[in-house]
Design brief:
Length: 280
């Protein structure tokens, strides 16, 4: 059994949803990333998602675009990110996912990229600009290296297309909760909840469902899990903490850990999750 599915099964036994945390690797400097990851893990996250900075991050909003700019200026390269991933995995028992754009993989060469990723302990890859229809060679090589292929599905996806994406995904399916780009929002609207419920009905337990884009606080996380998803993905909310503490590393790490803890508390199901209503 692969690491991502094993983690979901462990959480299922504990009656918990998963908290997946995204950070842009190398922001604000490659030397910080392993420490930031440790703060998140100590805060209770279940899966870590590291973004490889790319010059044209089409799926990302201003917060993560600025993080990408800081990371690139600090000299962060794809190989540096994979080295950081290896450092984190050797120290911590946490499934690790890489988010990258296809051009980076193509330039490195698919087999070369997956060879390094596997040796670095990477468990899954998210490629926002790779479609199911264009993924045949990619998926075949990913399977050779036992790395999960995590596709994205948007609210605009028809039932037929959602079925196709579910059939081609492994690890989990990334549900984009809203139209547009990444970025923290105040509310998780009814349209997002309707999409989650439609995806749950279509998937019928064949793939784990994780919801991202606009997820930033415990109320969002609680609503996602109570709507039937298996995980909530928080990115911009963590990246903003980095942004406002660029020169105060210790304060940054403490705030990251505390925010992760608050979000993780909201993944508990049943009576415990209901009790959070008055707290948040």
């Amino acid at each position: 059994m692969r690491e991502i599915e094993a983690r979901f099964l462990e959480l299922e036994r504990r009656n918990e949803g998963a908290l997946i945390a995204y950070i842009t690797a190398g922001d604000p400097h490659p030397g910080y990333t392993a420490e930031i990851a440790e703060a998140l893990i100590n805060g209770g996250i279940d899966i870590l998602e590291l973004g490889i900075p790319f010059s044209d991050p089409i799926a990302d909003g201003p917060t993560i675009q600025q993080a990408t700019t800081r990371a690139l200026k600090s000299g962060t390269t794809p190989r540096v990110v994979l080295e950081i991933a290896g450092t984190i995995v050797r120290k911590h028992d946490v499934p690790l996912v890489i988010l990258t754009y296809y051009n980076i993989i193509y330039k490195m060469g698919l087999r070369n990229f997956f060879d390094i990723a596997e040796k670095s302990g990477v468990n899954g890859i998210i490629v926002p600009d790779l479609t199911v229809e264009e993924s045949t060679d990619y998926k075949r090589i990913a399977e050779d290296y036992n790395v999960d292929t995590i596709f994205l599905a948007a609210p605009s996806s028809s039932d037929e297309r959602l079925e196709k994406i579910i059939n081609q995904s492994s690890g989990f399916l990334y549900l984009v909760s809203l139209f547009g780009v990444t970025g923290a929002r105040e509310d998780l609207g009814d349209q997002s909840v309707d999409f989650i419920k439609r995806a749950v009905s279509t998937a019928q337990g064949r793939i784990r469902l994780a919801v991202g884009f606009g997820v930033s606080n415990p109320v969002h996380v609680r609503r996602i899990i109570s709507s039937g998803a298996d995980a909530a993905i928080v990115g911009s909310g963590f990246v903003r903490i980095i942004e406002k503490n660029l020169t105060e590393k210790e304060g940054m790490l403490k705030e990251m850990r505390n925010h992760a803890h608050r979000l993780k508390d909201a993944t508990f199901k049943g009576e415990r999750i209901e009790s959070l209503g008055s707290k948040w």
